[in-house]
Amino acid sequence: MEVCRKCGAQNIDEARYCEVCGVDLAEVETQEALSGDSPAGGELGTAAQPSPGSLRDQIPFLTGAVEQAKARIDSWKQRSERSRQDKVRQEEAARQEQEQRATSARGSLSGLWSFLLGLVALAAFIYLLLRLPRGSFSPAVAWMLLEEIQQSLREQFGLEEEKAS
Predict the structure, then answer these.
(1) Of the chain's two ends, which shows fewer C-beta atoms within 10 Å, N or C?
(2) Residue 15 · residue 50 · CB < 8 Å
(3) How far apart, in whole angstroms, are the C-alpha atoms of residue 139 and residue 153?
(4) How many Å apart are CA 59 and CA 62, to the nearest integer?
(5) CB atoms within 10 A of CB 10
(6) What whole-number distance in Å separates Cα of residue 31 and Cα of residue 33?
(7) pTM of the predicted protein model
(8) Can you give the residue ranges of every domain in the chain?
(9) What single string gives the DSSP state of each residue in 67-101?
(10) Which of these, 3, 38, 45, lies nearest to 20 by C-alpha position?
(11) In this structure, how many other beta carbons lie within 10 angstroms of the beta carbon of residue 20?
(12) Cβ atoms within 10 A of the Cβ of 41, count?
């Protein structure tokens, strides 16, 4: 620590000017070396503490404030990122739930329509068997009529054909 020869304040070794009085430290040293004067403070022990109002007196406060600001900014960034990730997760869960509801509703509705289609086709087949004369109606013609009825009902209700595997 370098002590100012004019006011007695402590300065860092790399300082060119005094933090309190602003005197060029190198110039004061050369003048004292030439003249042989002693420091104005008279005692070097009193200059051990930074004088009030010097920038050096405020350094602990300033560094603490900077560190606190950095911590707050980092905390804010983390909360912001977590909030964004939570929002994305919630949107994803809501979308998946909506798709699942639509799929399950579509599946049960499709099953109901398939059942009703089969029931109508069976009723039409039985009706045709009872109404048509027995000698003029072959099983192949009945089967073709049943397929025609099923196809027309599928087209009317917009159902896809179920494939047997």
Answers:
(1) C
(2) no
(3) 21
(4) 5
(5) 20
(6) 5
(7) 0.30
(8) 1-42
(9) HHHHHHHHHHHHHHHHHHHHHHHHHHHHHHHHHHH
(10) 3
(11) 21
(12) 16
